[in-house]
Design a protein that fits this description.
Two copies of one chain form a homodimer. Chain A is built from eight helices and twelve strands. Chain A has a seven-stranded mixed sheet with strand order 7-9-6-10-8-11-12. In chain A, strands 2-5-3-4 form a four-stranded mixed sheet, covered by helices on one side. The N and C termini of chain A lie far apart (about 55 Å). Chains A and B meet through strand 1, strand 2, strand 3, strand 4 and strand 5 of A and strand 1, strand 2, strand 3, strand 4 and strand 5 of B.
């Protein structure tokens, strides 16, 4: 409604409530300029915030961006970053409505805040899962982790996985869809499926058991794991950065096919895989 | 409505529109940990964003904070910062509803995004000033600049001015008040009165002439200027960081006493002081 150029922007919030989330990305820690283009960094920084909005069941409406740039940063790099922000937002009909630029002494700093509108729906939090609910995921798991492992190992090939690390593709529309379908809890998988489902288990006071046979292991993932002597299921269970959505639904919910049922909510407090508990060692506990 | 702990927070936006603004503060550039306590840095970081919301004519409702912290940052420092955020927000009835913490390699990074509600009012932008309008300010000018000059010079004394540098006190309630009074343009003075009024002149296509005799020069400011052989009017005209509000009003507007008339809008495009133009050299042009 009012974009950059004033003290503040004005964004439509027809619901009468607004969803808001923020992330800070630091060069070297969250991205590397030698591994990702400015454009991809912009896409990724926007994506991880837009995915958080989607994970509440809301439609993203706008982002604002705070940038810290070292003196030597070229305008082409900044333009690429801005293009990335804009194009990722365009995927969901959102806009970049404001920002702030400062000179940083050392390394690029990117702060993104995303807003969203619930369209009258109740927000889907982490605390509503109930024993008997289905656990389902939408989007990719383990791809970004595999891509990062390939980059770290200096391995060529598997462009789809490296691309997944550089530029996540969150299933944005699946968040509001899940809310309409009656999801009881939802989050976006940013730290790994096991760890993030642990948040739902804790906040909802339930246990979650995943069916290892139901977890998707597409070809590129198993092939890359073979090339690196890695375990693809470990990437799927513990890899972050794909920004899949994980949600729980009442057991009779008719789920569309892009929501893949991978487990079940029960009484208790643990996250297990095929009934085996996930201890402090994480994934290692399931492996033989 | 929903605070920290989920993918995103939920904030009431009864107006159906939401005001949003963001700022990035970098250690060494925007604050120094040896000059300001964590608490004061938190107060200041919140204040400058809440003031931007107020300058649109809106009531601040919430902030979210992204923090980059070096490994050695103590919890007491972080607690002090959080207290500062919370207490500055409490001044306006707003809350800290979410955040993100990352490990930074070098220096504290603070990204603050503030939201606000217009309560049905039109936003007051920078583009509505018309020839004949009054120019008025609310809040302090030059105090923070004087405090910074005292710190840079290592001068003792004048605690009120040093305090003004460490912790601005924006006149929050005056922003929505100005909107109700029919302000035609408004902004918060963050870069200096001349420079910021230049934004109104440019966006509105008008000139602005300030009356030097009307500009407030309180005792501590003239005394500190005497001690440093500085010009207090220069601090008032070019000093930022006090986050006063500057607004234009139709000339017959009955202004309450905390809105001080300091100038007049005219035809043209320049900002002048007592009829003398402000060129690229800024304040130097007015001095003799």
């Amino acid at each position: 409604m009012l974009g950059p150029g004033d003290d503040a922007a004005l964004v439509s919030a027809p619901d009468g409530r607004v969803v808001v989330t923020t992330d800070l990305l630091l060069e070297g820690r969250h991205f590397r300029r030698d591994w990702s283009s400015a454009y991809d960094i912009g896409r990724k920084a926007a994506a991880q915030n837009l995915a958080d909005v989607s994970a509440m069941g809301a439609e993203p409406t706008a982002i604002v961006v705070g940038l810290g740039l070292p003196a030597a940063t070229g305008t082409a790099w900044v333009d690429g970053l801005a293009d990335g922000f804009r194009e990722e937002c365009a995927l969901v009909g959102a806009s970049v409505v404001g920002g702030d630029i400062a000179r940083s002494a050392d390394g690029v700093v990117i702060g993104v805040t995303a807003l969203g509108d619930l369209g009258g729906r109740a927000p889907v939090t982490r605390s509503g899962a109930r024993p008997g609910d289905l656990v389902a995921i939408a989007g990719r798991l383990g791809h970004a982790a595999a891509g990062l492992a390939l980059l770290l190992a200096g391995r060529e090939g598997f462009p789809e996985l490296v691309e997944a690390h550089r530029r996540p593709r969150p299933p944005y529309s699946c968040g509001p869809e899940a809310a309409r379908l009656g999801a009881t809890a939802m989050l976006d998988v940013s730290d790994g499926l096991l760890q993030d489902l642990g948040h739902i288990a804790e906040e909802s006071g339930v246990s979650i058991d995943l069916d290892p046979a139901a977890l998707p292991l597409p070809g590129p993932l198993t092939e890359a794991a073979g090339a690196l002597a890695a375990d693809p299921l470990e990437w799927v269970l513990t890899g972050g950065d794909d920004h899949a959505l994980a949600a729980t639904f009442p057991q009779d919910t008719p789920l569309p096919p892009h929501w893949l049922v991978v487990g079940r909510v029960g009484e208790g407090s643990e996250v297990t895989v095929g009934g085996r508990p996930a201890g402090p060692g994480g994934w290692d506990h399931f492996r033989e």
